[in-house]
Write a structure and sequence with these properties.
alpha+beta, Immunoglobulin-like, 8 strands, elongated, 2 domains, about 20% helix, three-stranded antiparallel beta sheet, 1 helix, about 210 residues
Length: about 210
Amino acid sequence: MREVDLFDDESGATVFRDVIMLALAGFVTLVLLLLPHLNPRAKTEDAIRSPGNVIIEARWPDEMDADVDLWVQAPGDVPVGYSNKGGAVFNLLRDDLGHTADLTGLNYEFSYSRGVPAGEYAVNVHLYRNHESSTIPVSIVVSVKGSVNESAKQLLATKVTLEHEGQELTAFRFRLDDKARLVSGSVHDLPKSLRTAQAAHPDRQGRRP
């Protein structure tokens, strides 16, 4: 009689363990199925698009305490830079003063356009102030997208060297057609002063050229 009872107890324990394991497996499977919905994937890069059609960026070494100014001009518009931060086409979105009042530690300025008017664009950089004992290398990149639904594509890139305070260099002059395409043979760097066109206007920080 005892052997029969022992056999029945072991069979019951085995069935109980099987039921628990099946329940646990079902729970794990359910969690795995729900996980993508509880933690959705981040949006793809294409789903998050930057504003602006023509994007012009200037970067110089972050460790260098220098105030470099980006100046840009769209066809038929006024020059845009620190003392005139907005025109009909371009807006200067960041005026970097070097290490002064800079919480990011990054040295860069950039301008965005609204639309892509056909014609000549000019891009200059100017060394307003330099606390370094060396020259300042500046990288300039131009990117373009025809509409807000497109991703920006790099169009031009170069590097120039500013050697002394007050120096203004033309990095690019180029033409775009009415479809936001670079006109073949239009790229050059013949000097064109942009900053002096706004020389009489102090900016919000009270700086003057």
